[in-house]
Backbone:
C-alpha cells in the first residue's frame, strides 16, 4: 500500500511570487545570523538594525503589492501558493498587513538606546546575574545583537501562522514564532532574575500549549485522514450532512477543543491567561510590546481559520459544544481581564490584564464570521496593536534614577507615575490617549474598533456562528469595557492630579513607607506587599522608591509614540478611509 | 492486530506527560513531561497514518521531532541559566513574579 502511495507522489507547484513577504523575512533572518557570525563587532549593530527594519518594510511593500494584485480592482482572488499549505486570501492579507505595521513600530522601540545609552537587552545573556563577569561585560560596554535575528524569525513565524492551510504548517509556524520569544523574554538588562523566571514560565506553559495543539492536530488527522484544513472541512461537512458517524467521530470534538486551547493560549484568553502578566512583566519592555501586539494578531488570524474550516462545517452538536466552549472562554477572559486589572500595582501587569480583556473582546467580535465582522476584527487588531506598542514604548522611557544620577531600570510601579503629567506633559498625554483608546472612549480608535466590532456581530445575529445568538455576549463585553474604564482612569488621575513622591515628602504628606524597591540592577524582590492604606485608596503611592525621570529617546521610540498617538486620534475621528480599504478587501 | 490500541497508548502517554508537567516540581522532569506529550502525539500521528492508509502522518512525525529538538535547545538553555543564577531547578523556587 505504501509503495503504491510513493509512486503516486507529485511535486507541488509553488507560486513563488506569493511567498515573497515570507521569503524576505525568513531570508533576512538567516542573513542576520550570518552577519552575527561574520561581521566585526563595531559595525554589527547598525547593519543588523538596517537589515531588520529594511526586511519588514520590503515585506510590507511586497504584501501590499500582492494584495492589490489579488484583491484590488480586477483582482485574481484567493491564491494557494504551496498546494494548500498556505492560503493567500483577503484574511491573510489583512492580518499580515496589520502584523507588519505593529511589528515595525515595536522593533523601532526595540532599537532605541535612549539618552541612557543602553539598549534594553543584557550585555551577555549567558552571564550569571550579579557575577563579576557580568560586571566586566557591562564596563567594557559589550552589546548584544542576537536580538535582531531572533526578532526576524519570530516575525516570520507570525506571518506564516495565520496563512497556514494545514495543521503541520500551523504547528511549525507556532514554534518558529514561540521559540525566539522564549529566548527574547530572558534577555532583559535589568531585573534579570525576573526576566529569566518569566522566560521559564513562558517556555513551560507555551510548550504545554503547543503540545495540546499538536495532539489536537493528531486527533483531527485521525478523524479526517488529512491534515489539510479544506480536507478536514470536507470530511466534517459530509459527516454533518449524512449523519453517519465516521470511525473516529468523537475525535473531531476532542481534537477541536485541544486545537482551540493551544491557540487561545497564544491569544492569552482565560483560562489560559496565567502566563500573560508574569511574562509581560518580566520580559524586556520592547519585547513585551512586540509580544502583546503581534503574537495576538497572528493567533487571532489562526483562530478564525480554525473556526472557519474545522468548526463551522462540523455537525451541529459538535459545533454547539465548541462554540459554547468559546463563549465560556470569551466571558471568562473579559471578566478576568477587567476584574484582575483593577487590583494591579505594576504598570506592565496592568497593561497585561488590559491585553487579556482585549482578547475577550476580539473573540466576541469573531463570533460574526462574515465580511463585515472580519473587517471589524482587523480594524480592532490594528487599533489595539498600535496603541499597545505605543503604551509599552512609553513604559521604556519612564525610568528610575539613582542618587548619583545614573539611569536605572524602568519605573514600573504605578505609584511612581504620580505627577508625570506636570514633568513631561507630552509623555503623560500620549499615555492617557492610549489608555482612553483601550477603554474605548469616543474620539479614539478604540471606540471605533469596539463600536464596529460589536455592532457588526449584533447585526449578523444567529446567521454568523450558526448556533447561538451573540447579543448576550456583546452585553457582557460592553459592561466589561465600562468596568475596565476605571483602572485606566485611575492611572490618568495619578499622572495628573497626584503630586510625585518628592513633592509630597516636602509638604509632609508622606504616607507610610511603601514597599521598598531593592537595587534594580540585581533586583530579586518586587514590591509584593502594599500598605493597608494604599490598598484602601486603591491608588498605591510609592514614597521610598528611587527618583523617577523620563529619559530622552534617541528618536525611534519618540517617533513610534507620535505615530501611534496620531493614529489613535485620526482613526478615532475619521476612520472612513481605513474601514473603506478593509471593506473593499473583504468584499462586503 | 488492532491499530487503534496504539492510539489508546498515545492518549495514555499524553495524559502521563500532561500530569507530569502539572504536578512535578523539578524543572527538568517538567521538561521531560513536555517531551513525552510531543512524542505521544507522534505515536498518534503514525498510528493514524497506518489506519488511514495515508503517509502524511509519518511525515508529520519528522517535523515534530525537529521541532522538539529545537525546543530542547531553548528549554535547557533557559533552565541552565536559571540554575546558574539560583542553584535550584525546583519550580517552587521560581516564584518572584507574583502579585
Residues:
Amino acid at each position: 500500500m505504501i509503495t503504491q502511495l510513493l509512486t503516486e507522489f507529485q511535486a507541488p507547484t509553488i507560486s513563488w511570487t506569493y511567498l515573497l513577504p515570507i521569503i524576505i523575512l525568513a531570508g533576512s533572518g538567516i542573513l542576520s545570523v550570518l552577519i552575527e557570525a561574520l561581521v566585526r563587532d563595531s559595525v554589527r549593530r547598525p547593519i543588523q538594525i538596517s537589515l531588520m527594519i529594511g526586511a519588514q518594510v520590503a515585506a510590507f511593500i511586497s504584501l501590499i503589492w500582492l494584495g492589490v494584485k489579488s484583491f484590488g480592482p480586477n483582482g485574481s482572488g484567493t491564491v494557494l501558493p504551496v498546494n494548500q499549505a498556505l492560503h493567500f486570501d483577503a484574511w491573510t492579507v489583512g492580518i499580515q498587513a496589520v502584523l507588519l505595521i505593529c511589528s515595525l513600530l515595536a522593533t523601532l522601540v526595540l532599537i532605541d538606546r535612549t539618552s541612557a545609552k543602553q539598549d534594553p537587552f543584557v550585555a551577555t545573556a549567558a552571564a550569571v546575574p550579579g557575577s563579576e563577569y557580568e560586571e566586566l561585560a557591562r564596563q567594557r560596554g559589550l552589546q548584544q545583537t542576537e536580538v535582531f535575528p531572533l526578532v526576524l524569525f519570530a516575525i516570520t513565524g507570525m506571518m506564516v501562522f495565520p496563512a497556514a492551510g494545514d495543521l503541520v504548517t500551523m504547528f511549525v509556524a507556532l514554534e518558529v514564532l514561540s521559540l525566539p520569544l522564549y529566548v527574547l523574554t530572558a534577555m532583559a538588562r535589568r531585573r534579570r532574575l525576573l526576566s529569566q523566571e518569566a522566560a521559564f514560565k513562558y517556555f513551560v506553559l507555551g510548550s504545554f500549549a503547543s503540545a495540546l495543539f499538536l495532539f489536537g492536530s493528531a486527533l483531527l488527522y485521525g478523524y479526517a485522514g488529512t491534515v489539510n484544513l479544506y480536507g478536514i472541512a470536507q470530511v466534517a461537512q459530509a459527516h454533518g450532512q449524512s449523519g453517519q458517524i465516521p470511525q473516529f467521530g468523537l475525535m473531531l470534538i476532542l481534537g477541536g477543543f485541544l486545537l482551540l486551547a493551544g491557540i487561545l493560549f497564544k491569544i492569552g484568553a482565560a483560562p489560559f491567561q496565567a502566563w500573560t502578566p508574569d511574562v509581560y512583566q518580566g520580559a524586556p519592555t520592547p519585547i513585551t510590546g512586540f509580544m502583546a501586539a503581534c503574537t495576538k494578531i497572528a493567533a487571532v488570524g489562526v483562530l478564525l481559520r480554525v473556526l472557519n474550516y474545522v468548526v463551522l462545517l462540523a455537525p451541529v452538536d459538535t459545533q454547539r459544544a465548541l462554540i459554547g466552549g468559546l463563549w465560556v472562554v470569551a466571558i471568562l477572559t473579559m471578566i478576568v481581564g477587567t476584574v484582575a486589572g483593577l487590583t494591579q500595582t505594576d504598570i506592565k501587569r496592568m497593561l497585561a490584564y488590559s491585553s487579556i480583556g482585549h482578547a475577550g473582546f476580539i473573540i466576541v467580535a469573531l463570533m460574526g464570521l462574515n465580511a463585515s465582522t472580519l473587517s471589524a476584527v482587523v480594524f480592532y487588531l490594528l487599533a489595539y496593536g498600535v496603541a499597545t506598542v505605543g503604551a509599552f514604548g512609553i513604559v521604556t522611557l519612564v525610568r528610575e534614577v539613582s542618587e548619583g544620577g545614573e539611569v536605572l531600570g524602568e519605573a514600573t510601579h504605578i505609584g511612581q507615575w504620580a505627577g508625570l503629567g506636570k514633568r513631561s506633559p507630552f509623555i503623560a498625554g500620549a499615555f492617557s490617549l492610549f489608555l482612553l483608546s483601550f477603554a474605548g472612549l469616543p474620539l479614539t480608535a478604540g471606540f471605533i474598533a469596539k463600536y464596529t466590532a460589536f455592532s457588526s456581530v449584533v447585526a449578523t445575529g444567529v446567521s454568523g456562528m450558526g448556533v447561538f445568538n451573540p447579543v448576550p455576549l456583546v452585553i457582557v463585553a460592553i459592561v466589561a469595557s465600562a468596568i475596565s474604564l476605571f483602572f485606566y482612569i485611575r492611572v490618568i488621575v495619578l499622572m495628573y492630579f497626584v503630586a510625585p513622591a518628592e513633592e509630597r515628602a516636602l509638604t509632609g504628606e508622606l504616607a507610610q513607607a511603601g514597599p521598598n524597591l531593592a537595587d534594580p540592577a540585581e533586583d530579586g524582590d518586587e514590591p509584593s506587599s502594599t500598605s493597608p492604606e494604599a490598598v484602601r485608596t486603591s491608588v498605591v503611592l510609592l514614597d521610598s522608591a528611587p527618583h523617577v525621570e523620563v529619559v530622552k529617546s534617541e528618536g525611534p521610540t519618540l517617533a513610534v509614540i507620535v505615530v501611534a498617538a496620531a493614529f489613535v486620534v485620526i482613526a478615532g475621528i475619521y476612520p472612513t478611509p481605513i474601514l473603506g480599504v478593509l471593506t473593499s478587501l473583504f468584499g462586503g | 492486530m488492532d491499530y487503534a490500541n496504539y492510539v489508546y497508548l498515545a492518549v495514555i502517554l499524553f495524559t502521563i506527560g500532561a500530569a507530569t508537567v502539572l504536578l512535578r516540581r523539578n524543572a527538568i522532569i517538567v521538561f521531560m513531561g513536555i517531551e513525552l506529550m510531543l512524542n505521544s502525539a507522534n505515536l498518534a500521528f503514525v498510528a493514524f497514518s497506518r489506519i488511514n492508509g495515508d503517509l502524511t502522518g509519518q511525515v508529520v512525525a519528522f517535523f515534530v521531532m525537529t521541532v522538539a529538538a529545537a525546543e530542547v535547545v531553548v528549554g535547557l538553555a533557559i533552565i541552565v541559566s536559571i540554575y546558574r543564577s539560583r542553584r535550584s531547578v525546583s519550580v517552587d523556587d521560581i516564584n518572584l513574579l507574583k502579585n
Notes: Residues 13-522+530-586 of chain A form one domain. The CA atoms of residues 311 and 319 of chain A lie 6 Å apart. Chain A has a mean pLDDT of 85.
